[in-house]
Batch of 4 targets.
Target 1
Amino acid sequence: YEIANVSNGKIMQYDKSYSSAGAYSSARGELANLVKVEVIPEPEPLGDATSIKDATEYEPELIVEGLVTASSTKGVIVTDNTGSLLVYGINSEVKIGDALKVQGNLSSYNKGYQLANPYQYEIASTGNEVTYPEATVLTEESISTMVKPALFLAQYASVKGLVSVDNYNNALIKVGDYTVKTYYSHDSYASYADKGAEIHGYVVAYKESAKEVSILVTSIEEA
């Protein structure tokens, strides 16, 4: 920017010979630069994590740590050796196989626990191998047991049946009086309409009024 002293006809310039800026009437070096500097402090390292199983016993604000084992457009599943938890609103940089430590507020949605809108996280490593436990087969009885508690953590399950597809290209499978619906998937399931399929994933929510079970998909295949 040119900074001029109009009354004296001088311009603020940087004089290299003096290593300083001053008001000169003739060219002495470089024009001054005005720079807006915004300092964003580095966040403090996250502290000790709470096991996912014990997270429900703590205050709303907490830290959990585990492996990202599933992903959707709205969040990811973080799993440690005690259980799995939906982290809602996590940044899209987080991928399956990342070792993640995340801080947020514990809340619930449609009976499913979630760590909502986390405001700090750390990725310790990427590309880790992901394995899944034996899936609970979703039947009327197992669904009833799974969603019976007032609130529940994410649970790994599978469902097999005839697929219908809604206007948002979500896959739906009827299980007796229940409907199992895919949860904010990255993929469209339009090609599975009116076909048999088997879905594996995490049950993360239950809408009681509609008897609708939300499953965050880890795999789907024709069956």
Note: The two ends are 68 Å apart (CA to CA).
Target 2
Amino acid sequence: TEFRGVTTFDTQGYFVPPSGTTEQRGRGRILIAGGNETPPSNVISYVNASTSGNAVDFGDLVTARRRARGLSSSTRGVFTGGFTTTPTATYFDIIDFVTISTTGNAVDFDGNTSGAASCINCASSTRGIMAGGLVPSSPNITAGINFLTIASTGQNVSSFGNLTVARRNAAGFASPTRGIFAAGFTPVPASTVLNTIDYINIASTGNAVDFGDLIEPLEKLRNGLSNNTRGIFGGGGAPGGNSNIINYVTISTLGDALDFGDLLRGKTDMAAASSPVRGLF
């Protein structure tokens, strides 16, 4: 049975069907895919953000890899890019997807590619954004931003615009309207670890605009989480060592990041995701 629109029940029996639409059943579920094992992992796990407890097996990626990036609507999860050193160093620009409310193996996103490996992802409820990352051409770090329609597998990935600085090893998040990208490493014009924060309007196309700066320059900051109003980055590789600082910004404004608090320890290469109220690293 599929429930659509506003659905409520009033009964004196012991069974009360859940309210809301069928598409909302997977909300609050966080998926974690791949990872840096030898060889790289293809495992997709999940947790429920509103509870605590160990992750549960969801299924497998199409291709085992580490440093894949995720984005999602409320119903579909998408994984892009990735890297493996087995049997040789290989960067992937592939895309695969799952239906969040079910379990099972990922499916290829109709042969489409993200345009870059190790890109920075964020999404609205309908559109997924992939920015920066590694490309086969030289210089191999790009400023390009691409987008896709999450619900459609028949539409090619399209060009959106460019970041203010070409970068990799960066992080992103989004509100329903605005996408944010921060930190990373750039080789041009000189090898530099960045504290730059960029933003875009997801529903349009065009180049990113400067938003502000992080508390400190960070590399290997591959995590970002947000709700509709506030975005958060945790940890990263700082010039003095791994950072434990959690940065936050108010997405609808412009300005520099502020201190939210600290992680339990300094870390890099983390993944992150959130419900509207709880964030997980």
Note: Residues 78 and 235 are 24 Å apart (CA to CA).
Target 3
Amino acid sequence: NKLQDSICRLNPSEILLETGMDAAVEEKLRKILQIKSAQCNISQYRHEQDERLAERHFGGNLPDDPEVRAAIELLLAYLHYILKIDFSHINKLTEIVQNEYMALDASTLRNLELLRNTSDLTTKGSLFGVLNATKTSMGARKLRSAIEFPLLNIGEIVRRQEAVAVFMDNLPVQESLSEILKKIC
């Protein structure tokens, strides 16, 4: 159930599986995706294990869990193989710690129309659609993440509110920053 909810929340366009994984697990994952995220592509890739790839890339700042490290290795190798570009701009990993955020399952996200409306599955009329006045795709992703993963920590909520208040109380700074952000690709 947690995997299904995570897939619905993240709404990935692609999921990467290592070639040769357990056939029963793969079949179950395909069924989940067929129901929950039909547009998601499943790619399979096998690479020669180079446990130092992630370490070299992230400078040793990696999680201790060997399965997480293996997933990071697979993803990096796949990206290098497919796109053949420099990934030095990807320099940070962010762990989603479940007990720091309110647990919203897929049906809650759907029924409250937090990200998409239920009639045509667009953002029009959803909470995200109403709030989204962002100037960059990075800002839109950040807003979407804030809606999908509501904070539970009161201190963090207040800190976020205070940051927003700085811009709400200072219109010239808000407009200046808005113009600068419009120029970001």
Note: The two ends are 37 Å apart (CA to CA).
Target 4
Amino acid sequence: MVPRPDLSPDDPLTALARPLALTRAAMVAERAARAFWPFVSIVAAGFAAAGFGAFGLWAPALWGVLAAAALAAGWGLWRFRWPSRAEGLARLDARLPGRPIAALSDVMALGGADPAARALWAAHRARMAAAAAGARAPAPAPDLAPRDPFALRLTALTALALALIFGAPARMLDPSAPFGPGAVEA
């Protein structure tokens, strides 16, 4: 791992590099799920329709599904934002009692010339560094239910599973192929 140039080796936040990276990765997964669930749902529904031969019956529907998928992908790219380091630290800090990571970024406001105040400040920072050392990265929690109140993502995935089981999965790669009892097999 490459050390960050803005962190010195004696900085207590350097010990949080791995939990911070995992927290930011979880945040990326959450944000990607929130931004791209419509795209994934449309693609799954499109493959399900192809598996059941819907595009062989009505070919313009394929172009409609492709256009809707392109719009959903563009919407997802527009909504997606990479989490910053500060957002990752705040998320990691929110899981710890007493918010020790925020306390480690504080500076001593008064009494810098007093040796007793500096010793007390150093003891406080050591206690906060020990509390922050126990930080564990949270698991991703995309929380898609409020964003998809009609569970369209689950409906599309269920349709895809049914198309894989009961439809013709080979037709998913060639949606214009004929389907049904009169279809000619090659």
Note: The helical segments are 17-51, 54-57, 60-79, 85-94, 100-104, 115-132, 152-166.
